Amino acid sequence: MIQPVSQMSSFVSFKKTNNQKKQDKKNNSTIKKYSDSFIKHSTESAPMLLGLTAIWSLLDSSGRNIPVKKSIMNNLTGFFLPVLVFSSAILSIIENRPTNKNKNKN
Fold first, then answer.
1. Whether the model pTM is above 0.90
2. 9 to each of 12, 23, 83, 89, how far by Cα in Å?
3. What is the pLDDT of residue 1?
4. Whole-angstrom Cα distance, residue 59 to residue 68?
5. Please, what are the averages of pLDDT over each run of 10 residues along the chain (106 residues)?
6. How far is residue 83's CA from residue 77's CA, in Å, rounded to a whole number?
7. What local confidence, expressed as pLDDT, does residue 28 receive?
8. Tell me, what's the pLDDT at 85?
């Protein structure tokens, strides 16, 4: 027999527990640490990498007899962006990895 909703005795709760809230805050702070570190390392290494990419593009365009614009675009997509992203990611991981002192605090 069908019962009215007011007589239902069991229900599902979608409320977050305190433990889940703490985990969410911890994950958000960890993500923020990594992203801040990634941005910091990207802004520090971008000028040097851009200079190296420009020099390499000029050498590449004169050596292979291709237009400078095409050489710059090839080197930006093939060298500058991958190296910038990869190196910044590695440095942010190294900077934020847990050490023995950090593990003992938590």
1. no
2. 10, 31, 60, 52
3. 53
4. 9
5. 56 60 67 90 94 92 90 92 95 87 62
6. 10
7. 74
8. 95
In whole angstroms, how far apart are CA 81 and each of 2, 20, 25, 40? 63, 37, 31, 16
Copy the structure tokens of residue 83. 């190296």
With contact defined as beta carbons under 8 Å apart, do 84 and 43 qualify? no
Query: Given the structure tokens 């440095």, which residue do they identify?
Result: 91
Q: Which long-range contacts (CB under 8 A, 24 or more apart) does 39-45 make?
A: 40/92, 41/87, 41/88, 41/91, 41/92, 41/95, 42/84, 42/85, 42/88, 45/84, 45/87, 45/88
Q: How far is CA 43 from CA 24, 32, 40, 87, in A?
A: 28, 16, 5, 12
